């Protein structure tokens, strides 16, 4: 079973200052994990993890990752602005967007970010806005299904992202003609993988493509971007990925494919979001109701507006009732939020200790794609984000929304005109 990174006593102290619900992040865990990622790929001179900003677009978190040597992977105007505000610039920013608006490309170019073209037609679209940069990247989609052993991991042929091999070739040829000098290849073939072989298998596909493109077009391949997709064990019975083994697996493919071709200067980039943050965030909520009808319910002060993954994907998040870590899980509950949507349940038929009103519930692994997916349905407000610092202090990184925030985008002027 997973253990929370705070005790009931610690949580209560934080709650005295900041009422539930809130997302709490573990600085120590974030830093240690980021260091381990950098160690796993230390064999590669140019290695850089570009944190997928969408997972946790919180300056306090982005700053920690900056200090650990990470760049930022953005896909929208606002994510670019956020990265700029935290002090990222130039090739510390990867711009991996799709269906990209013109103003986003313009800003990415102004910041000197590495542009990752999702589609062949984006090259001509970009050229109308700005000069083609010297370093560029294209996103590859091999089509078909992506299998590891006999398991289908994902279905790239069904995904809206990336270009076919022919389009990659034609794209690189045109980019070279327009002055590009250093080329990157990016691909994202499977999400939330719990296997040490995903990155090495993806690396093999991209390295082979890189060799082919280099030979055919006589271009300099500068980097391979393995993107995101490395998973975390949300369920207690799942085992975590071994990032050291993953790094070693990629190194072996690198030795096998790149080194004999003299391509030993190619940098490896990653764009992990989930693996960098998910386990180091949690949603803390208070039990405000219990309800006994055809099933047993406990109602929280948090809802799917604070954590959408269970409602959206049926995702599993482990729940610990703080202070009852060692109590027997001899009750079965649906743990629900207050949205007028029956899918607003953090857990269904979950075995938990006997729960009382006032208990503090700790929902695990919400550090990535948690707060950031929040929304305002039913007029629900997004929660605060708090950092549990290495020295044990709690720091507010983002305050909770207020009704004023919800009202801020309305224009009431017409209502008062007579
Ligand atoms: C979402 C996303 C990521 C991060 O994915 P994780 O599964 O969180 O690692 C990386 N790159 C791109 C382009 C993405 O859209």
UniProtKB/TrEMBL annotation:
CDD domains, alphabetized: PLPDE_III_DapDC
Coiled coil: none
Highest rank taxon of the organism: Bacteria
UniProt record, GO biological process: lysine biosynthetic process via diaminopimelate
Entry similarity comment: Belongs to the Orn/Lys/Arg decarboxylase class-II family.
Active-site residues (renumbered): 340 (proton donor)
One term of GO molecular function: diaminopimelate decarboxylase activity
Annotated EC: 4.1.1.20
Protein name: Diaminopimelate decarboxylase
Keywords from the named record: Decarboxylase, Lyase, Pyridoxal phosphate
Cofactor(s) the record lists: pyridoxal 5'-phosphate
Domain Orn/DAP/Arg decarboxylase 2 C-terminal: residue ranges: 279-367
Orn/DAP/Arg decarboxylase 2 N-terminal domain residues: 30-277
First-level EC class: lyase
Modified residue annotations for N6-(pyridoxal phosphate)lysine: 54
């Amino acid at each position: 079973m997973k253990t929370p990174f705070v005790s009931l006593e610690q949580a209560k102290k934080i709650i005295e200052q900041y009422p539930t619900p809130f997302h709490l992040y573990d600085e120590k865990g974030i830093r240690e994990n980021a260091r381990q990622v950098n160690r796993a790929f230390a064999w590669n001179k140019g290695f850089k993890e570009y944190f997928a900003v969408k997972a946790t677009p919180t300056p306090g978190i982005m700053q920690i990752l900056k200090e650990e040597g990470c760049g930022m992977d953005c896909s929208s105007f606002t994510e670019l602005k956020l990265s700029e505000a935290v002090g990222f610039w130039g090739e510390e920013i990867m711009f991996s967007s799709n269906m990209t608006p013109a103003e986003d490309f313009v800003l990415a170019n102004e910041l000197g970010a590495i542009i990752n073209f999702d589609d062949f037609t984006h090259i001509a679209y970009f050229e109308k806005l700005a000069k083609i940069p010297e370093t560029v990247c294209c996103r590859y989609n091999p089509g078909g299904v992506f299998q590891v052993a006999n398991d289908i991991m994902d279905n790239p042929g069904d995904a809206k992202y990336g270009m076919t091999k022919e389009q990659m070739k034609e794209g690189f040829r045109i980019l070279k003609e327009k002055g590009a000098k250093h080329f990157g290849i990016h691909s994202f073939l499977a999400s939330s993988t719990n296997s040490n072989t995903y990155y090495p298998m993806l690396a093999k596909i991209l390295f082979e493509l890189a060799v082919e493109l280099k030979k055919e077009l006589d271009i300099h391949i500068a980097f391979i971007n393995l993107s995101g997709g490395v998973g975390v064990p949300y369920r207690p019975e799942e085992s975590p990925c071994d990032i050291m083994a993953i790094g070693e697996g990629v190194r072996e493919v690198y030795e096998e494919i790149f080194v004999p071709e003299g391509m030993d200067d190619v940098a490896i980039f990653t764009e992990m979001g989930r693996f960098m943050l998910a386990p180091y965030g949690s949603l803390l909520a208070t039990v405000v109701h219990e309800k006994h009808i055809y099933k047993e319910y406990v109602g929280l002060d948090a809802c799917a507006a604070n954590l959408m993954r269970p409602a959206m994907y049926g995702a599993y998040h482990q729940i610990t009732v703080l202070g009852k870590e060692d109590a027997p899980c001899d009750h079965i509950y649906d743990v629900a939020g207050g949205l007028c949507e029956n899918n607003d349940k953090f857990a269904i038929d979950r075995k938990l200790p006997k729960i009382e009103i006032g208990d503090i519930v700790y929902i695990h692994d919400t550090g990535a794609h948690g707060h950031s997916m929040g929304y305002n349905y039913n007029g629900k407000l997004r929660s605060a984000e708090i950092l549990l610092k290495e020295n044990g202090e709690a720091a507010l990184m983002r305050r909770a929304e207020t009704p004023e925030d919800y009202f801020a985008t309305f224009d009431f002027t017409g209502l008062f005109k007579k």
